[in-house]
Amino acid sequence: MSSLIASCLLAVLTVGLAAPRAVQAAAGGPARGEVVYQRCLACHSLENNRVGPRHCGLFGRRAGTLKGYSYSTAMKNYGVIWNEKTLDHFLENPMMAVPGTKMAYAGVKDAQERADLIAYLKKATRDSETCK
Amino acid sequence: MTIEKLARVSPAERRRGFLTGFGKITLSATAIALLTGNEKLALVRSASAQMTNNDVTILNTALALEHEGIAAYQVGAETGLLQKPVLALAVQFQGQHKQHADALEKAIKKLGGTPVTPRKDYDFPKNKLKTQTDVLAFAATLEKGAASAYLGTIPILTERDLARQLASILGDEAMHWAILRQALGQNPVPDAFIS
Questions:
Q1: Which residues contact residue B36 at a Cβ distance below 8 angstroms, ignoring those fewer than 6 apart?
Q2: ipTM of the complex as predicted
Q3: How confident is the model over A85-104, as a mean pLDDT?
Q4: Nearest-Cα residue of chain A relative to residue B52
Q5: Which residue in B33, B146, B156 is closest to A95 by CB distance?
Q6: Of the candidates B159, B64, B169, which has an alpha carbon nearest to the alpha carbon of residue B112?
Q7: Residues 6 or more apart from B181 whose CB is under 8 A from it?
Q8: pTM for the complete prediction?
Q9: A104 touches chain B (CB under 8 A)
């Protein structure tokens, strides 16, 4: 029995050690991020709530608290404040980050694309003209 | 199950547990390999229920998009800006979105879920729709978005047959997008891949 447990633990540790580390992305580029954001436009927009919530004012907002949008209970309870780090984690695999989220999307798997997207969001969601 | 209880499980049972559990759930494969009997069954059932819930969530997202598309074509048609051949096309596309919605509703109900209903109103940029070109461009944006959305959901569906059905809808959305781009005088197929 002990050898079985030891083997399993070893396997888990080996897989953990062998798993690729998170790739360090270069600084995000808003212009490239705007291209990535085209995918998000399936459900979101900067100005209006659609299938997903509006993105204006995203940075610094607590997850699941935008008025006028009907969030999942899971997102209401998520509790994070949206910033570069929390967005990077969520966008990589939304349904894994917040089980029960309504954001049914595989995620932006490429670290550089996420960095670009976040750079764009940081700029666009504070645009005073769009986000009146 | 405690380590003491595990110790009382025979090697044959452990092997059986590992073999039957593997493939049904990958995230807890180690846990399943260690568990046997009711505990293992409970784990598999729980995981299976979660996967079904995820599929329902995915299908409801797609359904919400279809409802939005149907409403958008209605707004476009009611502007009075669409000329006859284009208007007929818009009505045809709207009809196909209704077919998508019907199919998705059936699939959701089959999984035991509750289909989302259309919103009472949508925040469409009606004030920006001043010409036929504006309406076509607006529709093209939604169709491209729909194709992207299906692309982003198909890989995470559990049921392969559902994935096939959604891929079939994706193809239709992509055709809508291409034809709208053609009508706008743009390259109908600008890239080899959709993202």
A1: B9, B13, B14, B16, B17
A2: 0.74
A3: 96
A4: A100
A5: B156
A6: B159
A7: B140, B187, B188, B189, B190
A8: 0.77
A9: yes
